[in-house]
Design a protein that fits this description.
Blueprint (H helix, E strand, L loop, with lengths): L11 H31 L2 H28 L5 H31 L12 H33 L1 H7 L2 H19 L9 E4 L4 E4 L7 H37 L4 H39 L7 H19 L1 H11 L2 H12 L19 H9 L1
Antiparallel strand pairs: 1-2
Length: 371
């Protein structure tokens, strides 16, 4: 029940106290109105729908290009790279559709202004999907960089070790490893919770973080950063090896064989740059959020909450940028750009002779013509 207090308004102290209470109420109301406007602004479903549509279309186009190239080059050394790349784009496509559909469903149900009291089945599924589809591209990019580094530096060993069957086994193991990490909350190692503005779920890093949540976030960030670091090392070694091979002025047929490697390494560099820009902020913000997690103020929690939202939005752009690496960084596209910028049409006398003139099947056509 409410107790009624009688105030003596002739007392200056009472008047001052009442004034302070009134001012506090006004400030709280203003903050509430500001927060409501902030939630409305940050949770516009049109932006999420546009991002989902653009990502789906981009990945479908890239998947079509890669599948067509893989069918033509099934028996060549590039087939392994194309199989990895096609799997990466397919994973990005699924990672855009599945979590995106759940997020749009949460939008359609209305955005709550308060954090939900518990993580339901939808939150558990969405959190697991974000961890799984977050680690898979990083693992696949690392595997592609390692495979290309072996192919460039040790071609004979690569030909002996790498096969289509082993590549498919490696893909299955990568997906299983990411799935195992995503399912850790099932065995009580970490927990998925709704994240501000309560339209997505991820590892609990704020609000009563337990030691298992800290370990889960450390594992996720460490795996992601390690994958990016290994990709950087392998791509650097591959690039230096190819540059040195060009400088030694090898024979023409050896240069032609290296043109595939150059194209693949350029695409890998594009993937690595895209992944670093999009994923490093979220991985770093996740590590920052668990530092001194038991001795944080409310202002610190608010700052980390904002950083996490920015990080996950930036990470979602990686699934849009990856397919454009394959769409744009192809020899056919680069050849057209070269023609437009230099005005040359006779490609046989240009420096792009090294890039194996023609489309991916041009070498086979040239062989038939010579015969």
């Amino acid at each position: 029940m409410l107790s009624i207090h009688h105030c003596n308004f002739s007392d200056p102290d009472a008047v001052s106290a009442l004034s302070n209470q009134t001012q506090a109420v006004v400030e709280v109301a203003a903050v509430g109105r500001k927060e409501n406007r902030s939630i409305t602004t940050r949770t516009n479903p049109a932006a999420a729908g546009l991002s989902l549509t653009l990502g789906v279309l981009s990945n479908i186009v890239a998947l079509f290009i890669l599948a067509k190239a893989y069918n033509r080059l099934r028996r060549r050394s590039k087939a392994t790279f194309l199989l990895f790349a096609s799997s990466l784009v397919a994973t990005d496509l699924a990672g855009h559709i599945i979590p995106g559909a759940v997020v749009l469903r949460l939008y359609s149900n209305g955005v709550s202004q308060n954090q939900p009291s518990h993580a339901d089945a939808t939150c558990q599924f969405l959190g697991g999907s974000m961890v799984f589809f977050g680690l898979c591209p990083l693992f696949l990019g690392c595997a592609m960089a390692t495979e290309r580094c072996l192919g460039v530096t040790q071609p004979l060993l690569h030909a002996r070790l790498i096969s289509s069957t082993r590549t498919k086994i490696a893909l299955v193991l990568i997906w299983l490893a990411a799935l195992a990490v995503a399912l850790l909350p099932v065995i009580r190692l970490g927990e998925y919770t709704y994240q501000y503005p309560w339209t997505w779920c991820f590892i609990r890093v704020l609000g009563g973080t337990a030691d298992t949540d800290v370990a889960f976030m450390l594992l996720f960030s460490a795996l992601g950063l390690a994958s990016l670091a290994l990709s950087l090392v392998c791509n650097t070694v591959s690039g230096i090896t190819l540059v040195l091979a060009r400088l030694r002025k090898r024979k023409c047929h050896l240069r032609t064989a290296k043109s595939h490697d150059i194209e693949m390494v350029v695409q890998l560099l594009g993937i690595m740059i895209s992944s670093c820009i999009c994923w490093i902020p979220l991985l770093i913000f996740g590590l920052m959020s668990i530092i001194n997690c038991h001795n944080r103020s409310a202002e610190d929690d608010e700052r980390y909450r904002t950083l996490m939202v920015m990080g996950v939005r930036l990470a979602s752009y990686n699934q849009i940028l990856d397919p454009w690496v394959y769409i744009l960084l192809r020899r056919a596209v680069l050849r057209k750009i070269y023609q437009l910028t230099t005005g040359r049409t006779n490609m046989r006398v240009s420096t792009l002779r090294r890039w194996e003139i023609g489309s991916l099947q041009s070498s086979e056509k040239n062989t038939v013509k010579r015969i």
